[in-house]
Design a protein that fits this description.
disordered N terminus, alpha+beta, four-stranded antiparallel beta sheet, disordered C terminus, single chain, 65% helix, 27 helices
């Protein structure tokens, strides 16, 4: 039978779902190769629009998005509705006696001018009438506050005008040795946005050159190394554009942006690395550029698509939560994953069409014997002790997370040099009457009723150290500031929150404040967390079954990923709660972890761990489908994929570490946690624990009930795909096949 007849016969035969997917991806790769100029032009437009328009997403983001579903946020909404205000701007005038005539004159003059500015609801200082002025004076008499409330209709420009006038007090008191620092919640929000954008840009600038250097070492040439970087840059532009679109329809918390960016950057580099590596392999087998691109799209492209699907499933679990931060991360994260996969499947084939001839093909295939195969054999001979030791190490590394304490860091997320943070800390330390109370009870009643409730119920609770004030907000709404013993967000404060919610004195109340927000978030974790975990686990098990045809390996993968995830969370606790290496990393420990960070770490780290699981199992399954024994499939699979997985992990660690060098505490926490997760997963888990477990289970690794085996035969996916359009043209040919000749054999 001639090659052309073989192609015709193969094309007419029924094709499995797996072959159909491979054929579609091969067709996509072929199209992008042939239309590479148009594809490159499209991604160039996406990048330009993403930078010009998507870059504005930082301006439209919300620092501290709230949720109407939690009681703490409902209480804040009741107060805002009764006395609407956009926020406050606060100045600390320090360094001179408050009663100094020059200081007094400068402050009162500025306060009067600010009160007359548009957008200002009220402006008060330590020299005004009434008992409230005393709270704006420090105990030692050397500092005072100027507090300005902006109306709910005020604009950013009006807030800037107030900030500038407060800062101008400095020129009046400088000669007296005074110092003015301007902060407040509106200033804090603006600083969070600017610092987040700065850290994101810094992370990109640091990581991209470093990843390029590493990839030059991996591929031995600049042409191959540059493609993943180009793909990553283009996908980040698309990610910014997608997040900008989401910001038009939902509140995007500022902290979401760098997290989504770092995920998109890391995945784009990983996926492009896998595609370029497979292209080099195909070229090393003698395929033409067009054939190699098509084969790469059908094989590595399938792994990329499948990997992206597993990461998206892990992130989709966050949709279960009502927290706006988690919902925004889920929406942005899934869109970023989709864009990273799209860039790998379309832009990389197009770039390979331009640069394929300059990419060095390996002179010999990856040897079947090497460091990784020898490691697997050594592990296989000692599978039980290796598995036990690895498991014990991972469990010990995760143990610190058992005493993790969740908290809202507030101004502490900013660096110590931040003016907003300095003002917030000064108020907490020197103006206790003006600082935010650990717990605030919102009573939907008049001041007299609220006072009676405060005296009869609130003040009698064992954890309460005192009621600081009962403040009428309107005729029908009052607030009670509650002080507690010990840590304002510690166990005692949380217990007081629960007791206040258990005994409302027959009134309509909402318990709010920092401690209440933490309690609400933890309650949501306890109620919705198991549902999210179950959905993610179920989705992951189904996807891995479709790839492997086994019910054993997906369960093992799930358990091993949980172990590596625990190690990451344990490291997070040691560093950011207990303060290990805090001096080296340039931050001050807050005594706990930001409430939503462990949830995000779980979703991201779980998805990334499955990413590498897919990379490895795809190769092992390919070899298994070719008839190798289980033991030999593992040896060859780890040997042939170990170098690329290690390289991908190294690049991912560089990306995460680059973002961890920023000054925002939340970005640091995510960067460190994900860097540890990837490093542990690519070394201890993939190189030792996975081979040990595979050796212990042997052929049982591939077991599945008969009905599920039949289901997999029909709908399953694998890395090994026969492409009749390529095989007859390339493999049997004793000479390189011309592009034109290949085209004539295509269906």
């Amino acid at each position: 039978m001639s090659p052309r007849s073989a192609v015709s016969s193969a094309a007419s035969a029924p094709r499995s779902a797996d072959q159909q997917v491979g054929g579609r991806l091969a067709a996509l790769g072929r199209f992008c190769y042939r239309q590479r100029r148009w594809v490159l032009g499209f991604w160039a437009v996406v990048l330009v629009i993403g930078v010009l328009i998507g870059g504005r997403v930082f301006e439209g983001s919300v620092a501290g998005a709230s949720s109407a579903s939690s009681e703490a946020d409902r209480g804040s909404a009741v107060v805002t509705a009764a006395d609407p205000a956009r926020g406050t701007v606060t100045a600390v005038v320090d360094g001179r006696p408050v009663d100094d005539a020059a200081v007094r004159d400068a402050v009162t003059r500025a306060t009067a001018e600010i009160a007359a500015l548009p957008g200002v609801s009220s402006a008060t200082d330590a020299y005004g009438p009434g008992p409230g002025a005393a709270a704006l004076r420090s105990a030692d008499g050397t500092a005072s506050l100027v507090s300005v409330r902006m109306s709910d209709t005020s604009t950013s420009a009006q807030t800037t005008a107030v900030t500038q006038r407060l800062s101008a007090i400095q020129s009046d008191v400088r000669a007296e040795g005074g110092k003015v620092t301007v902060g407040g919640d509106l200033v804090l929000q603006d600083e969070v946005k600017k610092q987040t954008e700065k850290d994101t840009r810094f992370g990109e600038i640091v990581t991209l050159p470093l990843t390029l250097i590493v990839m030059v070492l991996v591929f031995g040439g600049l042409a191959a190394a540059s493609l993943p970087v180009i793909g990553a840059v283009a996908s980040v532009g698309g990610a910014l554009l997608a997040m900008f679109g989401f910001s038009r329809i939902m509140d995007i918390d500022t902290s979401v942006l760098p997290i989504a960016t770092v995920l998109g950057l890391g995945l784009s580099i990983d996926y492009a690395l896998l595609m370029v590596n497979r292209f080099r392999e195909e070229r090393g087998h003698g395929a033409t550029i067009a054939a190699a691109v098509e084969r790469t799209a059908a094989t590595a492209g399938r792994t990329v698509a499948f990997s992206g699907l597993t990461v998206a499933v892990a992130l989709s679990g966050l949709f279960v939560f009502t927290s706006p931060v988690l919902a925004a991360v889920s929406a942005a994260g899934v869109s970023v994953v989709v864009i990273a996969v799209a860039a790998a499947l379309t832009l990389i084939p197009a770039l390979l069409g331009f640069a394929g001839s300059r990419i060095k093909a390996p002179t010999a295939p990856v040897p079947d014997e090497g460091f990784f195969s020898r490691t697997v054999r050594r592990v296989g001979k000692r599978a039980v002790p290796v598995a036990l030791v690895c498991t014990a190490l991972l469990m010990a590394a995760g143990a610190p997370f058992l005493h993790a304490d969740m908290r809202n860091s507030g101004a502490s997320v900013l660096p110590a040099s931040s003016a907003g943070r300095q003002v917030a800390e000064t108020i907490d330390q020197r103006f206790p009457q003006a600082s935010a109370a650990p717990i605030t009870v919102v009573v939907e009643s008049g001041a007299a009723v609220a006072q009676a409730y405060a005296d009869d119920v609130v003040a009698q609770l064992p954890g309460v150290s005192g009621v600081r004030a009962v403040t009428p907000v309107s005729d029908t709404v009052s607030t009670i500031d509650v002080l507690v013993h010990g840590d304002p967000q510690g166990g005692q404060a949380k217990q007081v929150v629960k007791e206040l919610r258990a005994d409302r004195g027959g009134l309509t109340t909402e318990v709010t404040g920092g401690a209440a927000s933490v309690v609400d978030f933890q309650d949501e974790l306890h109620t919705r967390g198991p549902i999210a975990l179950g959905l993610v686990a179920l989705g992951t098990l189904i996807l891995l079954f479709l790839m492997t045809g086994s019910v054993v390996m997906p369960v093992k993968a799930l358990l091993m990923n949980l172990l590596s995830l625990g190690a990451s969370l344990g490291a997070l606790t040691l560093v950011f709660q207990d303060g290990w290496f805090s001096g080296l990393l340039g931050f001050s420990p807050t005594g706990g972890l930001e409430t939503f960070i462990p949830v995000l770490v779980f979703a991201f780290a779980f998805g990334l761990s499955m990413d590498y699981e897919v990379f490895l199992l795809a190769r092992i399954k390919e070899l298994r489908d070719k008839g190798h024994s289980c033991t030999r499939s593992v040896e060859l699979g780890v040997q042939r994929s170990g170098r690329i997985i290690t390289s991908a992990a190294l690049l991912m660690v560089i990306v995460f570490a680059g973002f961890a060098l920023g000054d925002m505490l939340m970005v640091k926490q995510m960067g460190i946690a994900l860097a540890v997760a990837v490093a542990v997963d690519a070394t201890l888990v993939r190189c030792l624990l996975v081979p040990a477990a595979m050796s212990l289970f042997g052929e049982f690794n591939w077991w599945a009930p008969a009905p599920l085996r039949r289901l997999h035969d029909r709908f399953g996916l694998s890395e090994h795909v026969e492409l009749p359009t390529i095989a007859p043209a390339v493999l049997p040919s004793p000479r390189p096949v011309a592009e034109k000749e290949l085209a004539t054999t295509a269906p």
